[in-house]
Write a structure and sequence with these properties.
The chain is α+β, with helices and mostly antiparallel strands. It has 18 helices and 28 strands. β25 and β26 form a beta hairpin. The longest helix has 27 residues.
Length: 588
């Protein structure tokens, strides 16, 4: 079936069901960012392969909304769908567009398994104001997808306490205490990274995300884990049971939540449980809405994890420096895709490497202006010594997760390219050197990065930084550095990225990304202050820096950082690479 055939089939189903519109989010029953192939409904229907988007289909119109990161990609991939550039001036959100398109008494279908309770509740409330009904009991897509990939069945494995720094039973105890503090009897979990963290489990059910498809229910008397039993070895199953975990099949979860339990007050995170789960439990229990306790526990890395992250930063830095040396010195023909393969090979040489933390972005020329560009055989460019090249990649190691972006020029950069690179570097340094009160939120730090670009009428459409998991998801909440006023204070132990950028569509893009750890700075009469510790070691491109645009403090920071990069990485590099890095890290 092509896109047009799929739309025709969906519209027939809509007509049979008596609905006037369908909303298709890019989601799974766990509200994951990245999806197993079985749940990639949006990609199947629209052809759009980005990780963020929402489609809306009416009898006459089909539209897809996605944010700045994917505007260029979506425009190239979509057929028979109109692209709505979410966040652009005068572009309505999908719900506002639908509200202006539909009439009173019209009905919208939205699969309640595939939307969070929070979003479903918000949509129902908005549309009710116009007399429009949002029905979250219908799945109109599944029957239309005859060759749908099966549910993943990759093995689960335990993350040893030597890496996790805390046992399952210790985590269960903390979650129970927090649940009781909310005056709740029971806590239901659907977020895969929270479950992986809580149970010290990892897997590969989602490409590049080391998680298992599972649900969990933690109450004061028992702990239930709902997971495909085929994923658990006898030893792992016995270990879980020894820690007080009762094991049930993944598919038993939905039947379980339909039944009244002895617990009457259930702690749920409406952002991470589906509307189906929320409605089912709400029929027989009082719901207490709050973020998963594990959400904050997970983002505050313990001392064992931090020690491993520091070691991982060195290993990953050597892999990336080996790659950049190869990129600069090898005469072998190179393409975007072959470059990604080469970097993966360098990471595989590092101890404790498991798999990439996301599909590497290798973007040459105008492709580098596409924030989340993904090369394929149809778009794969041959590299040549005449343009900018952006590499954004990361690794999942037993000892931590990494995320790093560097931009280089494979030939002689123009004055504008040097100017733009230096601006982005100044933005990066502003965050790296920030000192801020312990009451600060991420959006305040984000503004520090943008200041240098704003002064010249420039900006970038993504956040300055996101949280990073520990051998988990490369994007982790709740803290982030972005323009959105997220009311989460930055705390010691949070691992974030620092990645300002600048993108000139059709020309080139620049992004410079390190990971940073929030640590204590000092206490003064004005309160407690925090700062960032760098957690990435790889040089920046000296040939793209304009010293006349940089302050003495910025030049000193670069020189100090480059000396640290060389000192940390050189002992593990082969002589040619070590000599090459010595040149790359010379003082400005």
């Amino acid at each position: 079936m092509n896109t047009q055939d799929k739309l025709c089939a969906l519209r027939r189903k809509m007509d049979e069901a008596g609905v006037n519109a369908v909303i298709i989010p890019n989601a799974d029953p766990h509200q994951s960012e990245y999806l197993a192939e079985h749940w990639q409904v949006l990609k199947w229907l629209t052809g759009f392969s980005g990780s963020a988007g929402t489609a809306v289909v009416t009898p006459k119109t089909a539209g897809l909304w996605t944010d700045f990161r994917y505007w260029i990609q979506a425009a190239a991939q979509l057929e028979h769908f109109t692209l709505f550039r979410q966040g652009d001036t005068d572009v309505p959100s999908f719900d506002k567009w639908l509200a202006s398109t539909l009439s009173a008494n019209d009905r919208i279908a939205l699969d309640g398994k595939m939307v969070s309770a929070a979003q479903a509740g918000s949509l129902k409330k908005k549309f009710a104001q116009k007399g429009i009904v949002v029905d979250t009991t219908m799945d109109l897509i599944s029957d239309l997808w005859p060759d749908r990939p099966p549910m993943p069945r990759t093995p689960a494995f335990a993350l040893d306490t030597v890496y996790a720094g805390e046992t399952r039973k210790e985590k269960f105890s903390r979650i129970r205490k927090k649940t009781a503090a909310y005056n709740a009897d029971c806590h239901v979990m659907a977020a895969l990274d929270d479950i992986a963290w809580t149970f010290n489990l990892r897997g590969q059910d989602i490409h590049t995300n080391p998680v298992n498809l599972a649900f969990a229910i933690i109450d004061m008397d028992q702990i239930r884990l709902f997971i495909d039993p085929a994923k658990l070895s006898p030893a792992l199953g016995s270990s879980l049971e020894a820690d007080g975990v009762a094991l049930f099949d993944y598919d038993d979860f939905y039947e379980t939540i339909q039944k009244p339990d002895k617990q009457s007050r259930v702690l749920l995170d409406p952002e991470s449980v589906s509307d189906l789960i929320y409605q089912a439990i709400g029929r027989h229990s009082d719901i207490i809405e709050a973020s998963n306790p594990s959400h904050m526990f997970k983002c505050l890395k313990n001392e064992v994890q931090i020690s491993h992250i520091r070691d991982t930063a060195v290993k990953d830095g050597r892999a990336v420096v080996n790659f950049l040396h190869w990129l600069d010195t090898s005469n072998a023909p190179k393409t975007e895709m072959s470059a990604a393969e080469q970097l993966l090979n360098f990471r595989k040489e590092q101890d404790a490497f498991i798999h990439p933390s996301f599909d590497a972005i290798m973007a040459f020329k105008a492709h580098s202006a596409i924030c989340h560009y993904s090369a394929d055989p149809d778009t794969d460019l041959t590299l040549s010594p005449d343009a900018m090249f952006l590499t954004d990649s990361g690794g999942n190691y037993l000892t931590g997760t990494t995320d790093i972006t560097r931009t280089v020029h494979l030939g002689a950069p123009s004055s504008q390219e040097i100017h733009d690179y230096t601006l982005v570097l100044k933005a990066h340094i502003a965050v790296a050197t920030a000192r801020f009160p312990a009451t600060a939120r991420g959006y305040q730090i984000d503004a520090m990065a943008r200041r240098h670009l704003w002064q010249q009428g420039l900006d970038f459409g993504h956040g300055t930084g996101h949280g990073v998991g520990f051998f988990l998801c490369v994007h982790e909440g709740p803290a982030r550095l972005s323009t959105q006023p997220v009311d989460i204070t930055l705390k010691p132990g949070m691992l974030l990225t620092n990645e300002p950028g600048l993108y000139r569509e059709g020309q080139y893009g620049i992004r410079l990304e390190n990971m940073v750890l929030v640590i204590k700075d000092r206490d003064t009469q004005f309160g407690s202050f925090l700062k960032f510790e760098n957690m990435t070691f790889c040089h920046f491109e000296r040939s793209l820096m304009d010293k006349t645009m940089m302050s003495l403090a910025e030049i000193n920071w670069i020189n100090d950082y480059h000396q640290m990069v060389y000192d940390r990485l050189a002992p593990g590099l082969d002589t040619p690479v070590r000599q090459w890095l010595k040149e790359k890290t010379k003082s400005l």
